[in-house]
Amino acid sequence: MGLGSAGSVALKRAREKAAWARSLLADGKDPIAARRAEAEIPTFGEIADEVLATKSAETTSKASVARLKRSLEVYAEPLRSMRVDLVDTAAVLDVLKPIWVTKTETAQKTRGLVETVLNAAKAKG
Predict the structure, then answer these.
(1) What b/e sequence results for 6-34 when a residue is b if at least 16 CB atoms lie within 10 Å of its CB, and e otherwise?
(2) What are the boundaries of each domain within the chain?
(3) Which tens digit of pLDDT belongs to each residue from 62-106?
(4) Reported pTM
(5) Residue 5 DSSP SS3
(6) Architecture of the structural domain at 44-124
């Protein structure tokens, strides 16, 4: 199992990766399979785009679609690059805090959409 080239991975990081792989092996798990499974976990943005496509098909109002898109692409933008399994309460609060007082209704709707995205990810496994 490769850990990365010496030029691109610092020694400390290579040791961390090796320790992680050894701990999986000690538990009887295949570290290569675990790394592949981890790489297959979608990002919040990928699931959000699927939810947006579904919700866009359900509504006929262009304004509603624009609001959904703005909430998921602008307000929740910091979450989009995160793996969906790593999105936690603190990350969601970091997104909502800046708009909670000034745009309360938007913040509430964005929170609901974030919840919808996370529920969709959970349903997909």
Answers:
(1) eeeeeeeeeeebeeebeebeeeeeebeee
(2) 1-40, 44-124
(3) 888 888 888 889 999 999 999 998 899 999 999 999 999 999 999
(4) 0.68
(5) coil
(6) Orthogonal Bundle (1.10)
